[in-house]
Amino acid sequence: MASRYDRAITVFSPDGHLFQVEYAQEAVKKGSTAVGIRGANIVVLGVEKKSVAKLQDERTVRKICALDDHVCMAFAALTIFIGLAADARVVINRARVECQSHKLTVEDPVTVEYITRFIATLKQKYTQSNGRRPFGISALIVGFDDDGIPRLYQTDPSGTYHAWKANAIGRSAKTVREFLEKNYTEDAIASDNEAIKLAIKALLEVVQSGGKNIELAVIRRHQALEMFSAKEVELHITEIEKEKEKAEKKKSKKSV
Amino acid sequence: MAATFFGEVVKAPCRAGSEDEEEEDEGRRETSEDREVRQQLARKREVRLLRRQTKTSLEVSLLEKYPCSKFIIAIGNNAVAFLSSFVMNSGVWEEVGCAKLWNEWCRTTDTIHLSSTEAFCVFYHLKSNPSVFLCQCSCYVAEDQQYQWLEKVFGSCPRKNMQITILTCRHVTDYKTSESTGSLPSPFLKALKTQNFKDPVCCPLLEQPNIVHDLPAAVLSYCQVWKIPAILYLCYTDVMKLDLITVEAFKPILSTRSLKGLVKNIPQSTEILKKLMTTNEIQSNIYT
């Protein structure tokens, strides 16, 4: 059914599908898993970090990128793009230029929603132009606005964007999202530490090998961006495992 | 022209050949060179069933040589990983033979000197119950080779008192449905069985217009024709490479009669499965 209407981006199928856009969404599923959580006073971005080839310089493989920062305060917007790496680089550059351009023109830094809308509009343009293909990337954009409210947005290759309390993109995102739906409670995000642990727990649903394969970044209100080292992630994982053991012991006691 | 399930009219490709074929044949003459090339190609694409230890070909088909009551076939890397961790780990399995073949999908070009680790379809039987067979098939068996594979494994007149279980995976975008693929709960399991299979099924049956492809389809068709009870468990997933969540989607099968008595230690199996997963998988530079 799809084969006659999927060769050109600008052609709808009889039942209203834009197959190239849907195929671009499949490209996103080939990337690593990323998770974003909006806490009460913190935003967390976590991503699965697969090992690089032996001779490749690991420093050049950074997934979590800053889009903008305030003159004297925290990073206003942090993002992660999942999907085609080259597309991600191009879009991040355009977004960064837009952040600076906005600051020069309006003398205010962008809000998280503004830059998300800019990225989404850019992506949408490429679903409506002839001779171009859509960007094969989804993004999670987090940050704090001037009003101090934490924000998390997600965009996809079709150019839609929505605000989320917690979301996941990339490989097995559905599994992670289901985990988040079950475990995202007011208690779970009450403290910063709990929000961070929730992000790590969500990633551990699909990432097998532990701390060295998870990249984590947080922004707390009125504080600078913090990128976690592998050791710090491992510390949190050990805490999570201890809690699991305690919970299992309690269960077995109850059943006895 | 034909109407598809969802109402769109498409020209269906005809596997019987086009109507113009007869006229074309009269014009073409086959030279001896053509014949030789054809024979060489047929030899190269031959499916060989070998005894592993002696590396000699089996004279008769596998299931004619050994009596079989239960045959579990895993096709594809996720299905193979599932059987390796949950079934092969719970008993002592002895290798009885392997099928070696070459087609355009194979990465190696030399079929004669394949190393012992490169056998593509390996057959095992349970030491404590030698009529229980298992096949781990991680290669692609092309259409022209499927009949040969069936002949070499099942033979031309198979026994009817055996039960076949096939496990395989397919990408979720192949699943035809009026919903969008984004809303499907992948990975999910669907089953397709032959008329003679009477046991309860642990998951929904595969709905129309979906069809089964490749070797699983060949085996099921063969079983349907020969009235052998057979069931195919098809896992639709969006991660075709080796993936923990996809392999775990096969778990409901552990409770069925097909695998009853063959699985003992599930937590340990899960641990083995995690180790199997390539934790050192290199990051692709195209996808971030």
Automatic annotation (TrEMBL), chain A:
Transmembrane segments: none
SMART domains: Proteasome_A_N
A Pfam family it matches: Proteasome
Residues of the Proteasome alpha-type subunits domain: 5-27
Gene3D superfamilies: Glutamine Phosphoribosylpyrophosphate, subunit 1, domain 1
Alphabetical keyword list: Cytoplasm, Nucleus, Proteasome
InterPro entries: Ntn_hydrolases_N, Proteasome_alpha, Proteasome_alpha-type, Proteasome_asu_N, Proteasome_sua/b
Subcellular location: Cytoplasm; Nucleus
Biological process, per Gene Ontology: ubiquitin-dependent protein catabolic process
Principal location listed in the UniProt entry: cytoplasm
GO cellular component: cytosol; nucleus; proteasome core complex, alpha-subunit complex
Subunit text: The 26S proteasome consists of a 20S proteasome core and two 19S regulatory subunits.
NCBIfam families with a match to the protein in the record: PRK03996.1
Family (UniProt): Belongs to the peptidase T1A family.
The protein's name: Proteasome subunit alpha type
UniProtKB/TrEMBL annotation, chain B:
Region (Disordered): 13-37
InterPro entries given in the database record: Proteasome_assmbl_chp_1
Organism, as annotated: Aotus nancymaae (Ma's night monkey)
Transmembrane segments: none
Protein name stated in the entry: Proteasome assembly chaperone 1
Subunit structure comment from the entry: Forms a heterodimer with psmg2. Forms a heterodimer with PSMG2. The PSMG1-PSMG2 heterodimer interacts directly with the PSMA5 and PSMA7 proteasome alpha subunits.
Domain of life: Eukaryota
Subcellular localization(s) per the UniProt record: Cytoplasm
Family: Belongs to the PSMG1 family.
A family per Pfam: PAC1
Keyword line: Chaperone, Cytoplasm, Endoplasmic reticulum
Amino acid composition bias (Basic and acidic residues), ranges on this chain: 26-37
GO terms (BP aspect): cerebellar granule cell precursor proliferation; chaperone-mediated protein complex assembly; proteasome core complex assembly
Molecular function, one GO term: proteasome binding
GO CC term (a single one): endoplasmic reticulum
Function summary: Chaperone protein which promotes assembly of the 20S proteasome as part of a heterodimer with PSMG2. The PSMG1-PSMG2 heterodimer binds to the PSMA5 and PSMA7 proteasome subunits, promotes assembly of the proteasome alpha subunits into the heteroheptameric alpha ring and prevents alpha ring dimerization.
